[in-house]
């Protein structure tokens, strides 16, 4: 894999893994984050989808180059980290008012609505990271048959609990918000609840399956 650190600002570097997005690369991100976080120059490491963003204290140009070299040395022997998370099943109402994009997406994919739902529910997904909103899970494991682009013009309001597909990913909106993903359905399961000791239902390394409650045309 051709990996390199990209300097984004005086205090931020980012690492990008080449496509395709895989669980193995995400596990390497998890492991690298643990190692990098221990460096004295590092303030925070933010994990993305097969990416890492490293925030550091201000350094001189010479110090920054030395730091980049140290980061590059870590890439010579990339570790992996397996997280033994919990498994969660999320019930979903598919189609109709719950999933306004399901029928059109199925037609564009030359699949029946039932086939789309079957493909979406039979996979076991892994939570790669939480982002965009508190509790929003970015999931790996979507069938390639369901890869579908986001809307060119995002909706200004996506209901809380909406289950959607964006590109190679599927996920659930914990809160009402603007969003451009294709909406397949909706769940009543709360992904973020401040009244609980652990407000976020899902965490990196957890696995998830969707279960169809019903399908509306």
UniProtKB/TrEMBL annotation:
Name of this chain's protein: Allophanate hydrolase 2 subunit 1
EC number: 3.5.1.54
Pfam family name, one: CT_C_D
Carboxyltransferase domain ranges (all copies): 3-202
Record carries keyword Nucleotide-binding: yes
Keyword Cell wall biogenesis/degradation: no
InterPro entries per record: CT_C_D (IPR003833), Cyclophilin-like_dom_sf (IPR029000), PxpB (IPR010016)
Annotated GO MF terms: allophanate hydrolase activity; ATP binding
Enzyme class, UniProt record, top EC level: hydrolase
Domain of life: Bacteria
Record lineage: Bacteria, Pseudomonadati, Pseudomonadota, Gammaproteobacteria, Moraxellales
Keywords, ordered alphabetically: ATP-binding, Hydrolase, Nucleotide-binding
């Amino acid at each position: 894999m051709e990996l390199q650190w990209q300097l984004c600002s005086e205090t931020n570097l980012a690492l990008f893994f080449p496509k395709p997005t895989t669980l193995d690369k995400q596990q390497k991100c998890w492991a690298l984050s643990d190692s990098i976080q221990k460096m004295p120059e590092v303030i925070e490491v933010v994990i993305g989808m097969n990416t890492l963003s490293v925030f550091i204290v201000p350094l001189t140009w010479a110090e920054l180059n030395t730091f980049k070299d140290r980061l590059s040395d870590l890439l010579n022997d990339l570790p992996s980290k397996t997280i033994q998370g919990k498994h969660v099943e999320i019930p979903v109402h598919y189609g109709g008012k719950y999933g306004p994009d399901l029928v059109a997406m199925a037609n564009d994919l030359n699949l029946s609505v039932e086939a789309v739902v079957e493909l979406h529910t039979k996979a076991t997904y892994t939570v790669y990271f939480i982002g965009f909103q508190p509790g929003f899970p970015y999931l790996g494991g979507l069938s390639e048959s369901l890869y579908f682009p986001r809307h060119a013009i995002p909706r200004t309001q996506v209901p809380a609990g909406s289950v959607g597909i964006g590109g190679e990913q599927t996920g659930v909106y914990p809160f009402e918000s603007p969003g451009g993903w294709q909406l397949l359905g909706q769940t009543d399961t709360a992904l973020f609840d401040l009244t609980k000791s652990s407000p976020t239902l899902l965490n990196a390394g957890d696995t998830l399956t969707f279960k169809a409650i019903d399908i509306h045309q």
